[in-house]
């Protein structure tokens, strides 16, 4: 009992001994917390208020994309188009000319599925703007052969099973045709030890030149065999 009374008296004395400055500090601390909470709430609600104000304000219509006429030859036929200047050659072929043999894979120039030949040289059509090809001659997979009369490379791909799902095959075949033409014209490659010498259609040469065409099914060996047959060598 005496101990309890002593503790009560002690606590009472401690409270009385607290200075006014201490109480003021505690009071300021509480005010600071309240002020900080109010500021946080205001900051949280600000984006919503800004978004609401933006939604209620009248929208200025965006300017239409610039259009430009372009004319080029596709598989021997002249095509006249008026296109958004941002349209890629790939989209012009697929969406405007409805030549869907050329495939859209990565759309970043990394897979080769969109390969076509422009003036005899292979390019990734997803990286090239259509309006850049005024007067050019474009060859797609549809222009290489027909079901009744296949291009030798198309026939070789079938014979050697140079595909599985077939999605990358149009780009593979267009690239393969262009590769053999590069070798025939003497265009050197990275694996050629002597760039002044005439390149040969070796297995290593064919694989290096076709390295930009990705086959997720893994038909690379069969593709090399098909190319070797058309080139008249054992790849």
TrEMBL record:
Any one GO molecular-function label of the UniProt entry: 2 iron, 2 sulfur cluster binding
Subcellular location: Periplasm
Domain 2Fe-2S ferredoxin-type: 68-144
Subcellular location, principal: periplasm
Superkingdom: Bacteria
Keyword match Iron: yes
Enzyme Commission (EC) number: 1.2.99.6
A GO term from the CC aspect: periplasmic space
PROSITE patterns for the chain: 2FE2S_FER_1, 2FE2S_FER_2, TAT
Catalytic activity reported: an aldehyde + A + H2O = a carboxylate + AH2 + H(+)
Functional summary from the UniProt entry: Oxidizes aldehydes to the corresponding carboxylic acids with a preference for aromatic aldehydes. It might play a role in the detoxification of aldehydes to avoid cell damage.
Cross-referenced NCBIfam families: PRK11433.1
Subunit record text: Heterotrimer composed of PaoA, PaoB and PaoC.
Name listed for the protein in its UniProt record: Aldehyde oxidoreductase iron-sulfur-binding subunit PaoA
Species for this entry: Sphingomonas palmae
């Amino acid at each position: 009992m005496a101990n309890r009374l002593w503790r009560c008296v002690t606590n009472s004395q401690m409270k009385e001994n607290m200075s006014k400055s201490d109480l003021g500090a505690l009071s300021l601390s509480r005010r600071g917390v309240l002020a900080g909470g109010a500021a946080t709430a205001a900051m949280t609600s600000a984006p919503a208020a800004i978004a609401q104000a933006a939604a209620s304000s009248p929208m200025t219509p965006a300017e239409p994309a610039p259009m430009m006429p372009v004319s080029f030859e596709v598989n021997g036929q002249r095509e006249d188009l008026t296109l958004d200047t941002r349209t890629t050659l790939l989209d012009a072929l697929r969406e405007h000319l409805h030549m869907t043999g050329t495939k859209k894979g990565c759309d970043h120039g990394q897979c080769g599925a969109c390969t076509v030949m422009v003036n005899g040289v292979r390019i990734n059509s997803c990286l090239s703007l259509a309006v850049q090809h005024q007067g050019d001659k474009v060859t797609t997979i549809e222009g290489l052969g027909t079901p009744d009369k296949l291009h030798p490379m198309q026939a070789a791909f079938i014979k050697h099973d140079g595909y599985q799902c077939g999605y990358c095959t149009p780009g593979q075949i267009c690239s393969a045709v262009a590769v053999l033409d590069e070798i025939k014209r003497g265009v050197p490659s990275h694996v050629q030890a002597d760039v002044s010498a005439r390149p040969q259609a070796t297995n290593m040469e064919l694989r290096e030149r076709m390295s930009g065409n990705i086959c997720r099914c893994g038909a690379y060996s069969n593709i090399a065999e098909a190319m070797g047959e058309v080139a008249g060598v054992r790849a």
